[in-house]
Structures are given as C-alpha cells and as structure tokens.
Amino acid sequence: MELKDKLISSFMAFENMVDIDSPIHDVRSEAIKSFEDAGFPSKRDEDWKYTSLNSILKHDYSVFPKEENAIEYRDVKKYFIHDIDSYKIVFIDGKMSSHLSQTTHEGIDVCLMSSALSKPKYRPIIENYFNKAATKDSLISLNTAFSCEGAYVHIPKNKLVEKPIQIIHFSTGNEAALMLQPRNLIVVEENSHVQIIERHQSLAEHPVLTNSVTEIFADKRAIVDYYKIQNDKQSASLIDSTFIKQNRDSHASVHTFSFGGKLTRNNLNFYQEGEYIDSTLKGVTIIGDKQHVDHNTLVHHVEPNCESHQDYKGIFSDRATGVFNGKVLVDKIAQKTNAFQSNNNILLSDKASINTKPQLEIFADDVKCSHGCTIGQLDESAMFYMRSRGIPEKEAKALLMFAFSNNVLDSVKIPEIKQRISKIIANKLGVDLGFNL
Questions:
Q1: Which of 55, 67, 324, 401 could form a Cys-Cys staple with 343, CB 3.0–4.6 A?
Q2: Rounded to 5, what percent of the chain is helix, strand, coil?
C-alpha cells in the first residue's frame, strides 16, 4: 500500500482515537479531503521543482507508535541547551514525556496541544487561532488532519517570559520506520516577549519522517525570538512549515541552523498585518554526503513602514544539494517598505550543488528593496594570506567559513545557543578553533 493510501485509511482509526467533539473536528475532516485530492507534492509543482520526496516516501512508516519508550535524561542531555534554565516540552515518538518536560500554567501557558484541544478553557484561543495562519497545501492539510499533539504556548498581555522554551521531539527507533506530525500553536499577546528553541532528534538509524507545522501569532508590540536547530541523523527527514502573523510594532525573528538529516525542507512564511513591523529570517546550512536542505521563504508586506531582513548562508560539500527559494511580496499600499534578501553559498566540491532563486514582487513605488545571491568557492587570496602566516590549510579554511557565517550568528540573542552552534560548526568542519564566536 502506498503511503498516501495508508494515511487516508488510517484517518478513520485516528478519528476513533481522538475526541470527535473537539473544536477542530470539522477542520480535520476537511483537511484529509484536501490531502486526498492533492496528494504529496512533486517536482512538477513549482515550489518543489528542486526537491523530490520520492526517496523518503518509499518506506512503510508507522503512523501510530505501538508502545511508549522511556528515555533517561542523562542519555539525551546533550541535545538540550542544558546550561540555561528553561521550560521544556519533550516528546518521545510523538508522545509527551512528563519526566523530561517542565511545563507551566503560572501566568502563562506552556503545555500540550492535546490539553488545549480537550479542555473548554482553551477553546477561545483554539477557535481564534488554530489553522488561521497555515496555508492549505497538501502537506499542511495532512498535518492538520492528524493534529493531536505538539506544543501549545499562550503568553498573555504584558508578559516577559523569563526563561526560554525548548520544544524537543525524540524518535527512539522503536518502530522500523516512523512518521510524526507535530502541531505547535504559539500565541503572544500585546507587549509580551518569548524565546523558543525547537529541535527534532533521532536516537537510532531507523527512517523517520517528520511533517511539522507551527503557527505563531505576534500581537501589537510583541517580540518573538525563535531558533531551529537541525542536526539529525542521516536516516531522518524533516518537512518543517512555520507560519508567523505579526501585528503592529511587533518584532519576530527565526534563525534556522541546518546541519544534519537526509532531507530537510523549511517552509517559513511571514505575514505582516500592521505598520512598523520588523521580520528577521536568517539561516546557516552546512551539509555534505548526499544531504539535501531546501529553504522556501515568504515575507508578505501588507501595510506601510515595515522592514524584513533575510540572510541565508550555505556551505556544501561532497554530493550535497541546497535549495533557496525566497520571495518578498510588497502590496500596493505597503509604501516605505524596507526589505533585504541575501543568499550566499560556498561549494567545496565539484559535485555539490545549490539552486537559488531570490524573488521580489513589488507593487508599491516608494520602497527600498534589494535581493541577491552568490555561489562560489573560498577566496584563494585570503587562503594564501593565511597560509603565508603559518596557519595550516584546514584551519585556514575553517576560519574563512566561520567568518562567512558570522553575521548570522551575530544576531543570536541567547549566548548559550551561539556557543552551541559555534561548536557544531567547528565539528562539521573537523577542527578545534579554540574560541567561541
């Protein structure tokens, strides 16, 4: 049985497992119909022109894990940003781990999506925000149809969340092949500030396909600082779709660090629905072997006097493939828009490749918008200069690549994340530079 048919037939069993009185029951039913009509995307679709899912759809994925598998903190501590105090929402094979998690309802809600869907007190937030930012394409619809578990974060007005929130999904290899579909809803009301760290991590070499959807709502003057750390095993694939709606005077930033996994697709969509909004999208990708990372971004400027900044760096070796498809859309009334988009890439191998397509669609006439991309190799004159001063070739290359990605790391606001990413980059480059950026 093909995966599409298996998922459609599994939906009825899923419906029997969850509450049919759920506020999203009808939404789920409509979503599975949309997925049934559309199926999985293929390279015939313009947005998927350079990314094929064929190699990861051939596995016989388990849709519902058969049994729970406990994990000890000492065995997974290295995957947490453990040197800071934080709230934690931890899932093992799609199910929440109570002994690894630290949730709260004291002034803010940091808890489970399943709780929010089942308890009447959360119904107003669910009805007002769930599935209101996500688009209706096939993979989003598939996730919506099976929406049951994930992170639910609600920050009321005038709250400064003192601790970051870590959302971590572990897959244990308890199943021969596993498909996960987490759904996150994050609502940040007026004048509130939150920092969130997200990670998906396999603990075994079994195939894992994660189809994740996150909706984020930043109200007036809210600040959302989001970090995605993607450094999974090469048996794991991730399709990560994030949708952010911003209101007047809000600031939202997403940093995406892609280092591991077989196939990674990051769909990141910002919708600016007010004046004086600032949106930041930055990423660093370092991959090798036959890894594939695809960044697909959209910033939609709807109102005047707003800014957006996109800066993605890629380093590709061996037979790795990168894709960047970035779009900035400026509506007619969005005057005084300042939009910047940049995608710079280094190819360390003749067999590595990058497909990059920065796009601007501007219907306003009083704007400052720029875009550009570069594809090249390491600067030979800079290499010669460093080698002539006694720096070995391997370390010289590493220093240049650190410098190449440094402006992305400069905007990271949590020092412990910056240090962690620096160490991961050094490890990917196979050197010990002896300093932190």
A1: 324
A2: 25, 40, 40
69-73 long-range contacts, CB within 8 A, separation 24+: 69/93, 69/172, 69/174, 70/97, 71/97, 71/100, 71/170, 71/172, 71/203, 73/99, 73/100
Which of 196, 252, 211 is CA-nearest to residue 417?
Answer: 196
Query: Confidence band (pLDDT; 50, 70, 90) for 401?
Result: confident
Spatial separation of the C-alpha atoms in residues 154 and 162, rounded to whole Å: 14
Q: Biggest alpha carbon distance in the chain?
A: 72
- Helix or strand or coil: residue 77? helix
Question: Does the pLDDT value for residue 30 go beyond 50?
Answer: yes
Q: How many C-beta atoms surround the C-beta of residue 10 within 10 A?
A: 17
Going from the C-alpha of 17 to that of each of 11, 13, 28, 118, 135, the distances in angstroms are 10, 7, 13, 13, 26
The residue ranking higher by pLDDT, 308 or 175, is 308
Q: How far apart (Å, rounded) are the C-alpha atoms in residues 344 and 212?
A: 27
State the average pLDDT over residues 125-137.
94
Cβ proximity of 394 and 430 under 8 Å: yes
The pLDDT, as a whole number, for residue 436 is 46
Element of type H or E holding 34: helix 25-38
Q: Is 380 exposed, middle or buried (0-12, 13-18, 19+ CB in 10 A)?
A: exposed
Closest CA to 312 of 330, 331, 299: 299
What is residue 376's predicted lDDT score, i.e. its pLDDT?
A: 87
Helix (H, G, I), strand (E, B) or coil at 284: strand
Tokens for 326, please give them: 């970035």
How many alpha carbons fall within 13 Å on the CB side of residue 194?
A: 27
CA dist 126 → 129, 140, 182, 313, 434 (Å) = 5, 17, 16, 36, 48
How many CA atoms, within 13 angstroms, populate the side-chain half-sphere of residue 386? 16
Mean per-residue pLDDT over the chain, rounded: 93
In this structure, the number of other CB atoms found within 10 A of the CB of residue 42 comes to 12
Say how far apart CA 406 and CA 284 lie, in whole Å.
9
Q: How confident is the model at residue 255 (pLDDT cuts 50, 70, 90)?
A: very high
Answer yes or no: is pLDDT of 384 > 60: yes
What average pLDDT does range 393-411 have in this prediction?
A: 83
Rounded distance between C-alpha atoms, residue 217 and residue 244, angstroms: 6
Alpha carbon distances (Å) from 233 to 125, 208, 298, 382? 36, 10, 28, 33
Phi, psi (rounded to 5 degrees) for 16: -75, -20
Q: Is the pLDDT of residue 434 over 70?
A: no
Q: What is the pLDDT of residue 274?
A: 96
